[in-house]
Protein backbone atom coordinates (compact mmCIF):
# COMPACT_ATOMS: atom_id res chain seq x y z
CA UNK A 1 0.00 0.00 0.00
CA UNK A 2 1.39 3.41 -0.94
CA UNK A 3 1.96 5.97 1.77
CA UNK A 4 -0.20 9.10 1.88
CA UNK A 5 2.78 11.15 0.72
CA UNK A 6 3.40 9.18 -2.47
CA UNK A 7 -0.30 9.04 -3.27
CA UNK A 8 -0.44 12.81 -2.98
CA UNK A 9 2.66 12.99 -5.09
CA UNK A 10 1.15 10.82 -7.78
CA UNK A 11 -1.94 12.99 -7.92
CA UNK A 12 0.07 16.08 -8.04
CA UNK A 13 1.94 14.47 -10.86
CA UNK A 14 -1.24 14.36 -12.66
CA UNK A 15 -0.78 18.09 -13.17
CA UNK A 16 2.38 20.17 -13.50
CA UNK A 17 5.71 21.45 -14.71
CA UNK A 18 5.57 22.66 -18.26
CA UNK A 19 8.63 24.24 -19.73
CA UNK A 20 6.49 26.82 -21.47
CA UNK A 21 5.72 29.92 -19.43
CA UNK A 22 2.18 30.50 -18.22
CA UNK A 23 0.20 33.05 -20.17
CA UNK A 24 -2.97 34.90 -19.22
CA UNK A 25 -5.13 32.30 -20.97
CA UNK A 26 -3.74 29.55 -18.71
CA UNK A 27 -5.76 31.24 -15.96
CA UNK A 28 -8.90 29.77 -17.58
CA UNK A 29 -7.96 26.54 -15.76
CA UNK A 30 -7.79 28.26 -12.37
CA UNK A 31 -9.81 26.88 -9.49
CA UNK A 32 -10.33 23.64 -7.58
CA UNK A 33 -10.02 20.30 -9.36
CA UNK A 34 -10.70 16.75 -8.22
CA UNK A 35 -8.18 14.21 -9.48
CA UNK A 36 -8.69 10.45 -9.61
CA UNK A 37 -5.45 8.44 -9.88
CA UNK A 38 -5.63 4.83 -11.03
CA UNK A 39 -2.72 2.39 -10.81
CA UNK A 40 -2.46 0.10 -13.84
CA UNK A 41 0.89 -1.51 -13.01
CA UNK A 42 2.86 -1.99 -9.81
CA UNK A 43 2.36 -2.44 -6.05
CA UNK A 44 0.48 0.82 -5.36
CA UNK A 45 -3.08 1.48 -4.19
CA UNK A 46 -5.48 0.77 -7.05
CA UNK A 47 -7.31 4.12 -6.95
CA UNK A 48 -7.36 7.27 -4.90
CA UNK A 49 -8.79 10.76 -5.20
CA UNK A 50 -7.23 14.09 -4.20
CA UNK A 51 -7.85 17.77 -4.60
CA UNK A 52 -5.62 20.27 -6.32
CA UNK A 53 -5.98 23.98 -6.93
CA UNK A 54 -4.74 25.78 -10.02
CA UNK A 55 -3.96 29.47 -9.59
CA UNK A 56 -2.40 31.55 -12.35
CA UNK A 57 -1.59 28.33 -14.18
CA UNK A 58 0.36 26.95 -11.21
CA UNK A 59 -0.79 23.60 -9.79
CA UNK A 60 -0.88 23.25 -6.01
CA UNK A 61 -1.74 20.26 -3.87
CA UNK A 62 -4.85 21.01 -1.77
CA UNK A 63 -3.85 18.63 1.06
CA UNK A 64 -1.24 18.82 3.74
CA UNK A 65 1.87 16.93 4.64
CA UNK A 66 5.48 16.77 3.53
CA UNK A 67 4.78 16.72 -0.20
CA UNK A 68 6.71 18.78 -2.74
CA UNK A 69 4.64 19.52 -5.84
CA UNK A 70 5.73 21.54 -8.83
CA UNK A 71 3.33 21.95 -11.67
CA UNK A 72 2.05 24.26 -14.37
CA UNK A 73 -0.70 24.32 -16.96
CA UNK A 74 0.05 25.90 -20.33
CA UNK A 75 -2.43 28.06 -22.20
CA UNK A 76 -3.25 25.08 -24.44
CA UNK A 77 -4.09 22.90 -21.42
CA UNK A 78 -0.94 20.75 -21.41
CA UNK A 79 0.09 19.75 -17.92
CA UNK A 80 3.05 17.92 -16.45
CA UNK A 81 3.93 17.51 -12.80
CA UNK A 82 6.63 16.34 -10.46
CA UNK A 83 5.72 15.28 -6.95
CA UNK A 84 8.03 13.97 -4.30
CA UNK A 85 8.12 13.05 -0.65
CA UNK A 86 11.46 11.81 0.61
CA UNK A 87 12.73 9.07 -1.72
CA UNK A 88 9.27 8.56 -3.25
CA UNK A 89 8.40 10.44 -6.43
CA UNK A 90 6.02 10.58 -9.34
CA UNK A 91 5.82 12.29 -12.72
CA UNK A 92 2.64 12.91 -14.64
CA UNK A 93 1.52 14.52 -17.86
CA UNK A 94 -1.64 15.06 -19.81
CA UNK A 95 -4.12 17.67 -20.94
CA UNK A 96 -6.95 19.69 -19.42
CA UNK A 97 -10.01 21.17 -21.05
CA UNK A 98 -12.19 23.77 -19.32
CA UNK A 99 -13.95 21.15 -17.18
CA UNK A 100 -12.06 17.86 -17.36
CA UNK A 101 -8.80 16.22 -18.30
CA UNK A 102 -6.61 13.16 -18.12
CA UNK A 103 -3.24 11.62 -18.73
CA UNK A 104 -0.69 9.17 -17.42
CA UNK A 105 1.78 8.94 -14.56
CA UNK A 106 4.69 6.83 -13.33
CA UNK A 107 6.71 6.84 -10.16
CA UNK A 108 8.57 5.11 -7.39
CA UNK A 109 6.68 4.19 -4.21
CA UNK A 110 7.87 2.49 -1.03
CA UNK A 111 7.25 -0.98 -2.52
CA UNK A 112 8.48 -0.47 -6.08
CA UNK A 113 7.68 1.21 -9.38
CA UNK A 114 4.10 2.02 -10.34
CA UNK A 115 2.34 3.59 -13.30
CA UNK A 116 -1.17 4.36 -14.40
CA UNK A 117 -3.63 6.98 -15.53
CA UNK A 118 -5.34 10.00 -14.02
CA UNK A 119 -8.52 11.90 -14.73
CA UNK A 120 -9.59 15.30 -13.44
CA UNK A 121 -12.79 17.30 -13.19
CA UNK A 122 -13.57 20.78 -11.91
CA UNK A 123 -14.95 20.83 -8.46
Strand order of the largest sheet: 3-2-1-8-7-6-5-4
How many helices in DSSP terms? 1
Structural class: mainly beta
Using only C-alpha atoms, the radius of gyration works out to: 13 Å
- The portion of residues forming beta strands comes to over 45%
- Global outline: globular
Give me the strand/helix succession: HEEEEEEEE
Counting DSSP E segments of at least 2 residues, the number of strands comes to 8
Q: Let me know the largest β-sheet.
A: 8 strands, antiparallel
Short description:
The chain has 123 residues and is mainly beta.
Topology:
Layout: H1 4-13, E1 31-41, E2 47-55, E3 58-61, E4 68-73, E5 78-85, E6 88-96, E7 100-109, E8 112-122
Antiparallel strand pairs: 1-2, 1-8, 2-3, 4-5, 5-6, 6-7, 7-8
Structure overview:
The chain is mainly β and 123 residues long. It has a single domain (4-122), classed as Lipocalin. The protein has 1 helix and 8 strands, in the order αββββββββ. The model is unreliable at 14-24 (pLDDT under 50).
Features:
123 residues, 1 helix, Lipocalin
Amino acid sequence: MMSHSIRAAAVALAFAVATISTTASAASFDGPWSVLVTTRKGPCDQTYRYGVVISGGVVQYAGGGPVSLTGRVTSSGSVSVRVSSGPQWALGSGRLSRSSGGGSWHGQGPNGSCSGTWSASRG
